[in-house]
């Protein structure tokens, strides 16, 4: 039998909250972290707004030594280490001291791109013939696995320490990979999550694709409109989310606080066939992923109380709702409540899945379903499938037993996790 896996620690760095308490309050109150970014207007971006975590540089003293901060120019590394270490501390876990590492503990922490500012600096120095002035931190700040290596070293993990990368599915996939590693008996504790760099060098490609909203540059908090009739593209964002996942036996033995149980999930790809492409999902694969997650969790579709969707505020939102409806065979008023964190954070790219997994767990633990802001009038194609009452505009305080979280990414990749309120 597979081991039961629970969530015992949370960490988050989001545009609307740089710790779990701030983030929880923000999503319950409908607080947006999207703002105008002057650098984007100076660089002639069409979309000049983004979701950007805000903290003072001194805040890094809580997570990085003075030596580690020398030449630190990787925002994603900062976000990931803050969220990851917060989650580890929240779980009440110690770091390894001198001697053996923690053989039973590991890290799976994903990213889409890391250290873009550092890499840009390196390119200019190399082009100027100043390669010897790159410094000793260029590689560790720009290699994708820099984030998992940093966290693994700070904690002293002796189990698997690795980085995954699957576009917008990265964070949700990382959590599922960690769960499976524990279920197989290969570890007792895993720190799972994802992070994403911020800035024009990350967001520029999306602006060039013309898939970002440009008409809200002066009203940024109204810009991210998942499921809305007048949604006009996703707002780029950044940050990191982290979860400590642990075998139930290990968590109980040390008296850990248990936020929720992860009872199943699935990860797949549409193969860029049957309508799927580098940028569009294969709906058959999406539905298959959801159905396989239900099978893995050993639950029926009618047991799902709510869905924390991917829902990016693009033309794909109605298609996502249709896929959920067909996969669950539920529609109208029978459809689960559904929401999107992106209405308040924007689309945090590789970090989106992990940030949204944190939001899902908080809803189960604290008994609420957060509301969707900027969705006064849902898209007419969505309303053909589900009742408007299932798209809450304000936070509803109620107990839920099971919430599904899914992410879908470029490359036609999908991941779905089923979270359950922990019951002995």
Automatic annotation (TrEMBL):
Ranges where the Ketosynthase family 3 (KS3) domain occurs: 2-421
Localization of this protein: Cytoplasm
Keywords per UniProt: Acyltransferase, Cytoplasm, Transferase
InterPro entries membership: Beta-ketoacyl_synthase, Ketoacyl_synth_C, Ketoacyl_synth_N, PKS_Beta-ketoAc_synthase_dom, Thiolase-like
UniProt main location, coarse: cytoplasm
UniProt EC number: 2.3.1.41
UniProt key word Transferase: yes
Reactions this protein catalyses: a fatty acyl-[ACP] + malonyl-[ACP] + H(+) = a 3-oxoacyl-[ACP] + holo-[ACP] + CO2; (3Z)-decenoyl-[ACP] + malonyl-[ACP] + H(+) = 3-oxo-(5Z)-dodecenoyl-[ACP] + holo-[ACP] + CO2
First-level EC class: transferase
SMART domains attached to this UniProt entry: PKS_KS
GO biological process: fatty acid biosynthetic process
CDD domains for the chain: KAS_I_II (cd00834)
Cellular component terms per the entry's GO annotation: cytosol
Any GO molecular function: 3-oxoacyl-[acyl-carrier-protein] synthase activity
Family designation: Belongs to the thiolase-like superfamily. Beta-ketoacyl-ACP synthases family.
Description of how the protein assembles with itself and partners: Homodimer.
Record-given protein name: 3-oxoacyl-[acyl-carrier-protein] synthase 1
Taxonomic source organism: Aquimarina intermedia
């Amino acid at each position: 039998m597979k081991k039961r896996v629970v969530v015992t620690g949370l960490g988050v760095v989001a545009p609307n909250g740089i710790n779990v308490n701030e983030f929880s309050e923000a999503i319950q109150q409908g607080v947006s972290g999207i703002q105008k970014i002057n650098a984007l207007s100076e660089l002639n971006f069409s979309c000049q707004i983004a979701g950007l975590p805000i903290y003072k540089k001194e805040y890094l003293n809580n997570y990085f030594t003075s030596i580690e901060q020398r030449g630190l120019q990787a925002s994603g590394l900062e976000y990931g280490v803050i969220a990851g270490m917060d989650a580890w501390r929240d779980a009440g876990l110690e770091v390894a001291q001198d001697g053996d590492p923690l053989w039973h503990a590991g890290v799976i922490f994903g990213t889409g791109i890391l250290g873009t500012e550092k890499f840009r600096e390196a390119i200019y120095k190399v082009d100027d013939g100043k390669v010897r002035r790159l410094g000793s931190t260029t590689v560790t700040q720009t290699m994708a696995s820099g984030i998992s290596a940093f966290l693994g070293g700070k904690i002293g993990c002796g189990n698997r320490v690795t980085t995954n990368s699957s576009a917008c599915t990265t964070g949700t996939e990382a959590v599922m990979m960690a769960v499976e590693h524990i279920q197989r008996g290969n570890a007792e504790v895993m720190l799972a999550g994802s992070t994403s760099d911020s800035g024009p060098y990350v967001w520029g490609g999306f602006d060039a694709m013309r898939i970002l909203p440009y008409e809200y540059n002066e009203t940024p908090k109204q810009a991210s409109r998942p499921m809305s009739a007048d949604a006009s593209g996703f707002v780029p964002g950044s940050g990191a989310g982290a979860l400590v996942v642990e075998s139930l036996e290990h968590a109980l033995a040390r008296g850990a606080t248990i936020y929720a149980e992860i009872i199943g999930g699935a990860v797949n790809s549409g193969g860029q066939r049957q309508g799927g492409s580098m940028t569009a999902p294969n709906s058959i694969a999406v539905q298959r992923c959801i159905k396989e997650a239900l099978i893995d969790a050993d639950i029926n579709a009618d047991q799902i109380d709510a869905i924390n969707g991917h829902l990016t505020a693009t033309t794909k939102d109605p298609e996502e709702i249709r896929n959920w409806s067909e996969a669950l065979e539920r529609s109208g008023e029978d459809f689960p409540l559904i929401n999107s964190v992106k209405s308040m954070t924007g689309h945090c790219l590789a970090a989106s899945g992990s940030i949204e997994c944190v939001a899902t767990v908080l809803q189960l633990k604290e008994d609420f379903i957060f509301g969707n802001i900027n969705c006064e009038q849902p898209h007419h194609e969505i309303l053909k499938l589900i009742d408007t009452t299932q798209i809450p505009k304000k936070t509803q305080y109620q107990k839920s037993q099971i919430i599904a979280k899914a992410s879908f990414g470029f490359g036609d990749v999908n991941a779905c996790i089923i979270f359950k309120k922990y019951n002995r």
